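Collaborator request, handled under Task 6.
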Amino acid sequence: QELRPKSLDIKQEELGDMVEKEMASTSEAIEDAVRRIEEMMSQARNESSGVKLEVNERILNSCTDLMKAIRLLVMTSTNLQKEIVESGRGAATTQEFYAKNSRWTEGLISASKAVGWGATQLVESADRVVLHTGKYEELIVCSHEIAASTAQLVAASKVKAEKSSRNLARLQECSRNVNEMAANVVASTKSGQEQIEEKDTMDFSGMSLIKLKKEEMETQVKVLELEKRLEGERVRLGELRKQHYGLAGAYEAAEEGEAKPAAAPRRGILKKPPLAQKP
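Structure tokens returned to the collaborator:
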């Protein structure tokens, strides 16, 4: 008992209730995330335009698709859990089944919490990105976290499910869909970041003549530095290639020398073998 984690101090008879509460809480978190994304979309349309609006819409649309995929995953996971309990409990009650399989139940609760937490974090990161107070990298990390927690939930459900279960097959399909939507969030975030950075770098409309001249001089310095660095790297590449070709040539010559057979003695000249020397 002393070695058990403190998070497992819950009474076993309460585990069944916790599973249902946690799954319901996860579903609520996802529904709330979808609502918040819709609000952000409306706000972005009112407060931004041009490239920034295009980028925000693309990112938020990909986040909405991911939330829908997660919602379907949680619903399918809930159906699979009911199927597992019904097929495995026999004469026992649902609460007794969860108590008997307490470690599996705890894993299920943990995985469900991870999915709900990931969805909440994704929305908060998206909100900061739209308001230009957060980093695009946060969205990418959250997408990876959601994919990982999804895999955790599928693994936890798969332990007790029958291999031929249709709900298990649907859950695995939902998991693949979540991974695909998470990858779309990453792709839209990266492309949006590149668009925004390119626009910000090339927007000179608000600069004065003096500021433009200063920027021009600083850019010329950077160009010269990069050209010098490029020339140095080319020289280095040439030397590396020379060394590579030299070593490769020596290696091949050595191989040919080892493989070349020794010349046979001429038949016309026969020499006496040397006499054995005294030690």
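The cover message to the collaborator said: "Helices lie at 15-47, 50-88, 94-100, 102-130, 136-158, 166-202, 209-259. The CA atoms of residues 233 and 239 lie 10 Å apart. Please let us know whether this matches your experimental observations."
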